[in-house]
Structures are given as C-alpha cells and as structure tokens.
Amino acid sequence: MRYLKAPLGVSPTTMLKYAIAAALLAVLLLLTIKTAETCNEAVCGSVVSKCLLTKSCNCDLKNCTCCKECFNCLSYLYSECCSCVDMCPKPNHTGTDLSRKSHVEDFEEVVPQLFAVLTELPDPHKRWETKTFPVDMEFNHYDPKKEIKLTMLSVEQEVDPNKLTMITVNCTVAFWAQCMSWTKCKSSCLSMGASSYRWFHDGCCECIGQYCLKFGINESRCSQCPGGEESKQLIDEEEDDYDYGEHDYDDQDDD
Description:
Blueprint lengths: L11 H26 L3 H13 L13 H8 L3 H4 L20 E5 L5 H9 L7 E15 L4 E5 L14 E11 L5 H11 L3 E5 L4 E4 L19 H10 L12 H5 L1
C-alpha cells in the first residue's frame, strides 16, 4: 500500500486534519445547496424521517393515493417540508390584485385531487374550515380544439338557447383558522393543491378550489383572525341571505 507523503515542514497529522476539514466543508456546502433548493433539513429532518419510515408519503402528486396520509403525517410542517418528499406543486410567480382588501393569485400547477381529498372531511387538527356552495356556470364547447370555458352568467346577457348548456358545480374553499403572512398563505394553499388563493389584509387566508369563480368568497372568515370571527358569526346567523355573486342584478330587475 502506498501512502501520500506530507510536504516538507507539514506533519501527516496536520495533513489529515486539513483533509477532514475540507471533506466536512464540502459536505456542508452540498447540504446547504440542497436545502436552499429543496428541503429544509434542520426543520424537517425528524418529521420526514418518521413519515418515510411509516411509508406515509410513498406516492406522488399524479395519482395522489396517499396525499391525505402524507399531509396528516407532516402535520403543521407540511408547507415547509413537502419538498422533502416531492409533494410540493410548482409555484407560479405571477400575481394580480383583484380588490382593495385582499390579494389573489392563480397557481400554475394545481392538484385538484389533493385539494378534494383534504377538504372532503373536516380537518382533524382544525387547521382550516371548508365551505362548499353551488355555482351555476355556462358550459361551452369550442371547435376544433374542444376547449372548455366556464363563465358566470347574468340576467342581462343574451344567449342562444341552442348553444347554451348550464351546469351546476360545487365550489369549495378552505379558510385557515390562524392568521398568517401573505407568503405563508401562498405556500400553504399551494401545498394543499388549491387552484388559487386569496389573502386578506387582516391576515386571513383562503385556499380556493378549481370550480370557484372570482376567487371564491370575497369575505374574511378565518375563525381566529381579528376580522374573521365577526364575519363567521354574522354569516352563521344569516346564512340564507349571503350572496355568492349570483344575485348581483336582482336590484336592477326590481326597478
């Protein structure tokens, strides 16, 4: 076996120390790059190890056979740690303001199956509360590309009955209980597979499903936010009177 000779004036022990230090530095650099691009190992290491050990996250976003199990396993760290198990949809960095009291944005990559699974039943950890309501839409088929367009109808619009097909779909939104920052709201809704999100300026976060128009409900309903609890109580008392947008022209008809 051949051994490397130390340069003159440098002992083999010193060389070994330098080699170990260089190796550790290289490993640390690789981990830092990996963490910045994908997974926060310092925060997620323990919970991810548990979920991998129990095989709770052995699936992908395409078939989503264990999405809910993985979401529950990662628990409140899901939005921070979903990248560690390849369960984070890709973000979209473009956004558009819709109103003065909230910020809204569509996601480029959506996972409606994941969102449907997570909002089908009440969250066991009470992290969010779901609301589902029917929406009437116009269903148009465009040839030759067979594109599908869904739009809200008003009574003022003149439509051809022969070309019009009305369908009723369920819009589902999820209001997070706790107040959160804009970036936290965006990442939380993205991790749930939502189609879009609405972040209210009081800190309330609303994740919006694929069949919702005009970014869901334009009212803060988060139960533990300053403006959310009051709105929630008001709506519970007057649920039948709440307007989801389908009666915008009722007053004009009465005139």
